Task: structure prediction
Amino acid sequence: MHITLESDYAIRIVQILACANNRMDAKTIAEETCVTLRFSLKILRKLVTEGLVKSYKGSQGGYELTRPAKEISLKDVVEAVEGEYKLSRCLADDYVCTRGRSGNCRIQDAFNEVSDVVRDKLAEYTFDKLM
Result:
């Protein structure tokens, strides 16, 4: 099991911005993270929408973190791109169990517990610790 490529790239982008500690343009972000400019811009839009990154327009424009690296966790970034982390699709609110069950089953309970552990662990790693 892996995080998605989009989450992986989003983490790289936030790490570059945290290390730079100042505004960077999208082209430089793309080059330094080895992510295409087009995909970088898509990810940056999600990070801006979720309030992790601020964008500036104009000749002095670019992107920067909205808060210090110590206040942004891996969980924040992954969930900004993917939504709340859930180990299985059966944990989604709108999921209809193909086994005809209503409510939680033991498998869902186990998946919920594992999901909670992963979310908690991702929240422990802030970008000041990752620089």
Q: What stands out?
A: The mean pLDDT is 90. The chain has six helices and two strands. Residues 106-124 form the longest helix (19 residues). Helices lie at 5-20, 26-33, 37-49, 74-82, 106-124, 127-130.
